[in-house]
Amino acid sequence: MTYSTLLFDLDHTLLDSVESERLAFEAALAAAGIARPFDYFSVYSRINRALWAAVERQEIVPDDVRVTRFEQLVDQTDLDADPVALADELVAGLGAYGQLYPGSRDVLDSLKGTVALAMVTNGIGEVQRARIERLDLEGYFGAIAISGELGTSKPGTDIFDFVFEALGFPSKGGTLMIGDSLASDIQGGNNFGIATCWYNPDGQPAGSGVRFTHEIGSLREVLDLTVVR
Ligand SMILES: [Mg+2]
């Protein structure tokens, strides 16, 4: 099967979100006068992951994550700072820091003009829009769906309905969802009835029983799944 419409996740798929998050977290706590920001990072990461998992379960929306993660961090540690101020600084930093993985832009350049591309991302609108603008990504994509703007997230199907309408209703059979998350990207593609490609650069075991159509360890392998070559 070759695909003519590709839907890309952003975080941990095209973008090095680990680097972005570390730099933004350090800057946010430094701005609040906290001397050793990284003493709090592992607790923060656990809280943040749990909240985004709740977004995937449709229990909360992305904008709920923004302040709640810092309210919980202040509750669970000795951190003495204003959660709202930390949240505002973090959102600014997430937009301002972090780069695409090496090779991501080459893949997008190879695909642009030969297949239809869309971005489907679970995230806060302000963060993702700042990243898209700073990294000059908008021109690659015929549609950009950000869960925080739409009020609906992967693995739900409404976000895919939005993308399909924006792309002019491409064939489902020729469409591939590419992302690193089995719970949101792959389950979302399965729910919507399109093929899926699990981006698994670290060779993690799939576990969990979520089915996927393809698995790749390098984003360049996407080129072999399209009509480009
Ligand atoms: Mg991701």
What is the level-2 CATH architecture name of the largest domain? 3-Layer(aba) Sandwich
The global form is: globular
Distance between the termini: 13 Å
Query: How many individual domains?
Result: 2
Biggest sheet record: 6 strands, parallel
Essential attributes:
229 residues, alpha/beta, Rossmann fold, DNA polymerase, domain 1, 2 domains, 6-stranded parallel β-sheet, 9 helices, binds magnesium ion
Please give the structural blueprint.
Layout: E1 5-8, H1 17-31, H2 41-56, H3 62-76, H4 83-96, H5 104-111, E2 116-121, H6 125-134, E3 143-146, H7 147-150, H8 158-166, E4 175-179, H9 182-192, E5 195-199, E6 214-216
Parallel strand pairs: 1-2, 1-4, 2-3, 4-5, 5-6
Bound molecules: magnesium ion.
Question: What's the short story on this structure?
Answer:
The protein is α/β, with parallel strands linked by helices.
In words, what does this structure look like?
It is a single chain. With 229 residues, this protein is an alpha/beta fold. It has a six-stranded parallel beta sheet with strand order 3-2-1-4-5-6. The protein has two domains: 5-16 and 99-225, HAD superfamily/HAD-like (Rossmann fold), CATH 3.40.50.1000; 17-96, Putative phosphatase, domain 2 (DNA polymerase, domain 1, Orthogonal Bundle). The mean pLDDT is 95. It has helices spanning 17-31, 41-56, 62-76, 83-96, 104-111, 125-134, 147-150, 158-166, 182-192, and strands spanning 5-8, 116-121, 143-146, 175-179, 195-199, 214-216. It is built from nine helices and six strands, in the order E-H-H-H-H-H-E-H-E-H-H-E-H-E-E. The protein binds magnesium ion. Magnesium ion binds at residues 9, 11-13, 179-181.
